[in-house]
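Reviewers asked in the last cycle whether our approach scales beyond single polypeptides. To address this, we selected a multi-component target totalling 537 residues and predicted its structure end to end. The input consisted of the following lines:
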Amino acid sequence: MNVRITLLLFVAALVVTPAYAQMDFSGEWGVRMYEDQPERVPGPELGDFLGIPINDAARLRAAAWDASLQTLREWQCRPHSADYIWRGPSQLKISKEVDPVSREIVAFHAEWLRSVDRPVYLDGRPHPSPNAPHTWGGFSTGRWEGDMLTVTVTHLKEGYLRRNGLPRSDKATVREHWIRNGDFLTVMTVVTDPVYLTEPFVRTTDYELTVNQQVPPYPCGVVQEIDRPKDQVPHFLPGSNPYMEEFATKHKIPVEATRGGAETMYPEFRAKIRK
Amino acid sequence: MRNRLAFRIGVIALAYSIACSLAYVVSGFSRTVIAQQAPAPPTPRAQAPIDLTGYWVSIVTEDWRWRMVTPPKGDYASIPMTPAARKVADAWDPKRDAASGEGCRAYGAGAIMRVPGRIHITWENDTTLRVDTEAGTQTRLFRFGAPGPAAPAAPPSWQGRSAAQWQISGGRRGAPPAGGSLRVVTTGLRPGYLRKNGVPYSANAVVTEYYNRTNEPNGDTWLVVTTVVEDPMYLNGRFVTSSHFKKAMDGSVWNPTPCETS
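The resulting structure, written as structure tokens, was:
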């Protein structure tokens, strides 16, 4: 009898295939801001919409935006949205959630300095009804394409494409590709927004594995920053923003280019601005 | 009695040695036959887990101010330069570069994938992937496999020598491969610029690139190139950037242009 059991176990060990080893994205990742550093850390300049496929509605909203808006109590502790935060000035922590029985990865959780916990579900669950609440982190599901993780994000609250007032609507969806190349993580984000974009807005952002890092907590308290009437919301009326051409003047870039739009992200646009 | 015993031992030894020789010859013959019968290993072209060939156009949604126009001298934002690099960049003189045959410095392998324009990827042969660029009319050759024996070292060039390797996902325990990426390591470079305004990389720079491809629900196909430049002389740490290209329908608007210094 023992011989049979031993034989069975031996055969089973030969036959059983272990779960497919998925790429592990968990760990502490240091952001490498070797692209667009002035925009990402100090912050973008007003009127800089270069290379973003926005439409006129987005330009109008951005021209009405007043940075003082961020001093409002309602805005002070607002986290970056799931689509923007990859490009934000923060290190990243990704942890994995493992099913205790199957040991399969059922979710990744991504956290940055100024963000909410953002789970990416890998267990095949559907996205909720379109009427479900929208949040800063949205609702994310992922599926494997080889070693690349492709993530679909829906249910986002309204956010921004750039921190100078360029809006992204709550109807936008985001597709991400998480690509790990050794110690480097490259994440491609594809934002599709029927309200403010004429083409998908694609960016790729890089992180490097960092073993001596810990994303600290980010407690945020609301204070009265500026005394103003309760019903006053900082803004510029259409056509009244005096700062929209400062960026173009400062950097000697044609105003037409700084207004953005899909045309500005194609190489041919260089010939146009040289004329 | 002794002689008979010695004779027998001698016969056995002789038989053994003949048998061993025969076995060696037969096994060698078998190996030859098997080698002749075994199919040749697939070529890198046949092994490709992703198709990178075709025309691709760079989409400039990042670093616009430093890529679409030539930034002014001294604008080195985002690059982890050493003091030595800053000294070189501060002495940037585009007219001098043009006059001295150094006009393609901003189009070398350390920066070329970041220069706006289209690229055309084809197979030069079964072991070499070729990348042509509109910008600067450059050609890069990604060679798979070990370098050939006793090949004389080529002089440094703008595009250097590139060793390529597929990184295949899945395929474990007989399962079919599930995609993958391309890793390319380039050395043997002529000193060039990471940015058109003279931010340098040296002849000792090593450029490692990863090529990945994605497919989107709207039918778009993208090429993502992650580039890591290591150059202790001019860079503090590993300089990583990633650039993205959208698949173009064809080469109908392909328009190679010469190197420009400003």
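Confidence is low (pLDDT under 50) at residues 9-19 of chain A. We regard this as preliminary and will revisit it once experimental data from Aim 1 are available.
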